[in-house]
Amino acid sequence: MGDVSNIGVIGAGYVGLTTAACFAKLGHRVMCADIDPDKIARLNAGEVPILEHGMDELLEQGLSDGRLEFVVGAENAVTDAEFAYLCVPTPQREDGSADLSYIEQAAHQIAEALPAEAIVVNKSTVPVGSTRVVEAALGRPDVSVVSNPEFLREGSAVRDFFHPDRIVIGADDRAAAAKVASLYLGIPAPIVVTDPRSAETIKYAANAFLATKLSFANAIAAICEGVGADVHDVMLGMGYDQRIGPDFLNPGPGWGGSCFPKDTRALVNIAETGGYDFEMLRSVVEVNEQMFDRMVDKAVELLGGESVADLSGRRIAVWGLTFKARTDDLRDSPALEIIERLAAAGADVHAFDPAVQRELPGMTVLDDAYEAVRDAEVLMVLTEWDDFRWLDLGKVAELMADRRVVDARNVLDRQALRRNDFDFRVVGVPS
């Protein structure tokens, strides 16, 4: 373990909480701030507001060791901080650009409270050139601003922090970059030190490339359905090519979440600002939008309809609401995009998700998977929860009004579906 540092983390959201808890685990003293007093009280009591494997234990240990504390107000987290991590939202504007108002506001709040020679670190996903924005907002020539983008996947964020593929640090001051790198001593990963603009671009480029792989897999799945090929075998054959790799070649109903939709559109906007029309990435986004409609079309086909208008009054069950399994995050979820289309067509949607127990617009949310399928004419599986693999399809068949399934995640046992006389559609395999 390296030297112990005092770290202030601004923002107790997904990235901020993970960053704070994991740095405390590494032995640093961490003060994490947020604007919500109730949230801060719950965190100091050891209550984790997100579904993330391993976070409960990290929070409990950090609090009990006295290395982790939560406070209200950004300025209160940095009075003794050698490093101040900005982990605040950068929401998307209507034109696709990132809204930096939260970043600027946080920088203003901590400017006077920061000790001399402190280092401010951008952890949020920010547009190219944002270090200059933070520098201007701080107005502190003695304070260095460094880019240290996060590469945390929801559901495995704790593991990703301690076992990253790489750590990226962007700084004009190499001494400041070295100090930030020292915070990660003990983590076995290559460290890429570059300038701030390159570091900021790396994050967007990585997410855009992963979204491209997913859209490509979904496009190939559509081709497979048309020509009679099996997309699983096709992706398996592709994935063994070391130049391609197997990751992110899983077809499904489209991609979503807090990063990919926002970051792909932001990179298109960044490209336009730089004088380049990123037509390829715009096509990646378009393919993703098409997938939502393709899933709805599968339901229409199973019901013997000709258009989405034929869904009016039909009862449809949905398993899965979150954008991926092992998280409770609904942001830009493909499931919600599809349900929005079903509801707009007049369908009666009854849904279940293991991590969602609250009412949502356009559907009735139930707390039991079997109750969700009762009297349904079609069941649509929209999130890849392992829980769904082990449910009794014989019982499902008895509860449904008709035995029809759209498995948009290819998680159900097709042989079991056939044994129970289901008419079903999956992704990337001919019907």
How would you characterize the overall build of this protein?
The protein has 431 residues and is an alpha/beta fold. It is built from 15 helices and 14 strands. It has helices at 14-25, 37-44, 55-65, 101-111, 130-138, 157-162, 174-182, 196-227, 231-239, 260-273, 279-302, 334-344, 369-373, 393-399, 414-419, and strands spanning 6-10, 29-34, 68-72, 83-86, 119-122, 144-147, 167-170, 191-194, 315-319, 348-352, 364-366, 378-381, 404-407, 423-426. The strands form three sheets. A six-stranded parallel sheet has the order 3-2-1-4-5-6, sandwiched between helices. β7, α7 and β8 form a beta-alpha-beta unit. α8 (196-227) packs parallel to α11 (279-302), α10 (260-273) runs antiparallel to α11 (279-302) and α11 (279-302) packs across α12 (334-344). It is globular and about 70 Å long. The mean pLDDT is 96.
